[in-house]
From TrEMBL:
GO molecular function, one term: kinase activity
Catalysed reactions listed for this entry: ATP + protein L-histidine = ADP + protein N-phospho-L-histidine
Name of the protein: histidine kinase
E.C. numbers: 2.7.13.3
CDD domains, per database record: HAMP, HATPase, HisKA
Principal subcellular localisation of the protein: membrane
HAMP domain boundaries: 175-228
Cellular location(s): Membrane
Keywords carried by this UniProt record: Kinase, Membrane, Phosphoprotein, Transferase, Transmembrane, Transmembrane helix, Two-component regulatory system
The organism's taxonomic lineage, starting at the top: Bacteria, Pseudomonadati, Pseudomonadota, Alphaproteobacteria, Sphingomonadales
InterPro entries in alphabetical order: HAMP_dom, HATPase_C_sf, HATPase_dom, His_kinase_dom, HisK_dim/P_dom, HisK_dim/P_sf, Sig_transdc_His_kin-like_C, TCS_sensor_his_kinase
Amino acid sequence: MRKLAASAAYRIAFTYSLALALAIVALGCAVYVAADASFRSQQDSAIADESAGLVRDFTDEGLGELRTEIAAREAGSATNAFGYALFDARGRRVAGALDTPRPPAGWHDIVFIDPVEGPDPARAYAHDLPGGLRLVVATDSAPVERMDATILWLFSGAFVLVLLLGLAGALLLGSYLRRRLARISGTAQAIVSGDLERRVPVGARGDEFDELALVLNAMLDRIAHLLENLRQVSGDVAHDLRTPLARLRNQLAEALDGKGDAAAVRAALERAIGQSDELLSLFAAILRISEVEGGALARTFARIELSELIGDLCDSYAPAVSDSGRSLKCEVDPGIRLHGDRELIAQAVINLLDNAQRHTPPGTEITVAADAGPEWIRLSVADNGPGVAAEDRPRIVRRFTRLDSSRTTPGHGLGLNLVAAIAAVHGGDVLIDDNRPGLRVTMVLPRAVS
């Protein structure tokens, strides 16, 4: 019982059953009152009509006809539900068989003596006639009371039945809710115990529990992805920092062993500062990616004139690309607008341009393109250089991933990862394709509403 009381599922089910039972009680009371009032109104109407008929007989034919009519109606008592009594001014019953004291004029609930059952309740109407006479017409209240009792019994039985059905239904509903919720709590317990691959079962009905399961599973997938990223970053940071930190230590040790040669000490310290700057840039890149992936920047999004932004970037980078022995083309449709962060989009394009210059030989043609459909914008940077093997393309957007062909070039393998993070925070994705020849990196982003 304590377990049932502590269960929210059972409390909800029992509360619903109790509310239904109380509704039955309220309905029963309303029906009882309405039915009783209707029966009694019909009873009073019938008594009034019967009394009016007898009064007309007295008015038209006199006292003798009234007595005759009362006697005739009482003689047909098998079909007549009324009782009659005519009292004189002294209160003596001078006609009729209704055995009751002389009541005051008007409507009354009286008690009469039934020859078979003894004292019985009745509804009566007393009408004053000329000469101090008082005519009483009454009908037995027992039929109305029996109807009232029948209604009470019916609704009492219905109330008990509803309580029993409500109890059974509450137990079934509570058990069902506990089973559905137990799947969610069981999954949570498994994840707490270390089974990070566990997911909430999703049924085929598509009800609210299944919708909740889908949302929770999506959240768990996101958490698992973030944990995987965290493990990867932790390992990759440790791996990538080992070499530069060892080099930095050696350079500082070399400076200490300069043996008084100021020029050698200075050169060693300058190399150490350069190595420190490289490490600081690495941490700055990691922090920037974390900031973008956190999603807080999405609150500052505004409408961007993307065509204008890409044109400005191409104009700014064209001289540097040309000086490196490569060429830059810009193929951007006019009037493209994007809802996002101008600085982040510019950073993504700059990263892609830097990668295209860093990993292609002189003479390579680099193309920046942007076009828009009804709902999506495609922003790409392509080159006709050596490209990337198909099996390596999914890897190069991961943090600290550097292919063997790019080990000798500067960098930490974070450029494309930042591009992917920028695309994701804008609600888009990054596609890496073969440019035949070369490589094409495309950011697919949702288009801003004009």
